[in-house]
Amino acid sequence: MEKLKLPTYGGQAVIEGVMMRGKKNAAIAMRAPDESIVIHQEELGEIYKSRLLNFPFFRGMILLWDALGLGMRALTISANTQTGEDEKIEGPQLILTLVVSLTLAVGLFFLLPALVGYLFSKLPFATASWSGALVEGLIRLLILVGYIWLVGRVPDIQRVFAYHGAEHKTINAFEAGAEMTPESVAKHSLEHPRCGTAFLLTLVVISIIFFTLLGPLPLGLRMVSRIVLIPVIAGVAYEYIRWTSNHLESPLVRILVKPNLALQRLTTREPSLPMLEVSIAAFNAMRSGEERLVI
Q1: Opening angle at CA 113, ends 107 and 118, nearest 5
Q2: What pTM was estimated for this model as a whole?
Q3: What is the pLDDT of residues 152-193, one digit of tens each?
Q4: What is the pLDDT of residues 6-58, one digit of tens each?
Q5: How many distinct structural domains can be found in the chain?
Q6: Nearest-5° angle of CA 190, CA 195, CA 196?
Q7: What is the CA radius of gyration of the chain?
Q8: CB 250 within 8 A of CB 135
Q9: Percent helix, strand and coil across the chain, each rounded to 5?
Q10: 161 is a domain residue
Q11: Domain limits at 70?
């Protein structure tokens, strides 16, 4: 079996299911209430064929925004499959959901740490110009790890994390040329260098570097800069993940990705064989869709 050129395929855990995304299509495999596996496939949007994706940094911002919408649709489709409802979140409703989610995320992970860092920089003993940015970054990191740890205590989220582990094991098994059966896939690692968790940690580290270089700013300008620079930082983080995943043969790169892989231990759980069966079904459906769409 030919080894994939990274980054080509990605996955995402959804409610009682897994989404696998290729270059041209995405497939979602879900457990229905009757325990059967339901497959949903859709061709990716025109943005994935755009020449804009040839430009470093810019492509990261585009793909990340589209991935948010694709992930939201996957969660909606999976939830509807579990409940048997036919309603879909799409159009203005989907956009509103994304905007509200992003607003809360920006407030919690960017603006709140920026405020704490600013207040710290005003303390008498905070004489170093970079101290406020460092504290801000550490607060952001603590919020990220604490949030992941906290939601990971919820039983339903633990099942989602188990499907996340199944997705990682499936991709790792395929890239290793292993037999795509639940028993075979179960032997592979829960960690994967292209995981979204790795992206989040990279985003936090790069934000510390960026905001430290900006130096001390008035509170208003500080808040605005945190919002305006999110797409730039996200683009840099995407390119970093892309570069490391393509150079894993380097001992230095393997050292660099260790923190990212370690954080994934919070967002993955050991999946059951039925969960692996769902993940494999999603991967096989996505692969067949890729072959079908080849012109």
Answers
A1: 120
A2: 0.82
A3: 999 888 998 999 999 999 999 999 999 999 999 999 999 998
A4: 334 566 665 678 889 888 888 999 888 888 899 988 888 777 777 777 777 77
A5: 1
A6: 135
A7: 20
A8: no
A9: 65, 10, 25
A10: yes
A11: 10-293
